[in-house]
Design goal:
3 helices, 8 strands, 160 residues, globular, alpha+beta, four-stranded antiparallel sheet, Nuclear Transport Factor 2, Chain: A
Length: 160
C-alpha cells in the first residue's frame, strides 16, 4: 500500500519564521499615519516611509472592526462577508435595537473571524450620548489570549 504525503498541511518556512519571531498573526495597518524610529548611532529621529504591520491581538481587532463595518455584498470575492452594524446607526436608540445588534454580532462574528471565540457580547443603548456601547469579550486560543474585552461605540459618526 502506498503512503499518503500531505505536504499542504506541513508548516512552511514563512510560518516557522513568524513563530520564531514571536507572533502568529500578521496584518497590514492600512491607516495612513507617519511613524518614526530613532537611530542611536546618529542620535536622530527618522521618518519611516513603509507600510506598517500589526500583529496578533491588534491584527484580530482590526479584522473584527472590518467585519463590523462591511456590508454583505461589499466584497466582490466574498459577497456574504460582513456583520454590517452600521445599518443600525439611524434607528431609534432603545433596548430592542440593542438586542438585535447583540444577536447579529453573536451569530455572524464567529463566521467571519474564526480565530476567535466569542465569550460574551453586551450592547447597551445609551440614549444620553446618542450611541450604543458595545462590549465584546473574546478568547484567542491560538495565541493563549483569554478574556479580552473590547469596548467600542456605535453612533452617527460610525463605529469606534
Amino acid at each position: 500500500m502506498n503512503g499518503l504525503k500531505l505536504t499542504e498541511l506541513a508548516p512552511n518556512r514563512l510560518t516557522d519564521s513568524a513563530v520564531k519571531k514571536g507572533f502568529v498573526y500578521k496584518d497590514l495597518k492600512l491607516d495612513l499615519e507617519t511613524s518614526y524610529t530613532y537611530n542611536n548611532t546618529i542620535n536622530a529621529k527618522q521618518e519611516l516611509n513603509d507600510v506598517q504591520a500589526i500583529y496578533d491581538l491588534e491584527a484580530i481587532k482590526n479584522s473584527i472592526r472590518n467585519a463590523f463595518l462591511t456590508s454583505p455584498g461589499q466584497r466582490i470575492l466574498a459577497p456574504e462577508y460582513g456583520v454590517d452594524i452600521r445599518r443600525y446607526v439611524f434607528d431609534q436608540i432603545n433596548e430592542d435595537t440593542a438586542f438585535f445588534i447583540e444577536r447579529d454580532i453573536e451569530r455572524s462574528l464567529p463566521l467571519f473571524e474564526p480565530r476567535i471565540e466569542v465569550e460574551r457580547v453586551s450592547v447597551v443603548a445609551n440614549s444620553d450620548d446618542n450611541q450604543y456601547d458595545i462590549y465584546l469579550t473574546i478568547n484567542i486560543p491560538e495565541i493563549d489570549v483569554y478574556g479580552v474585552t473590547l469596548t467600542n461605540y456605535l453612533n452617527s459618526n460610525g463605529y469606534f
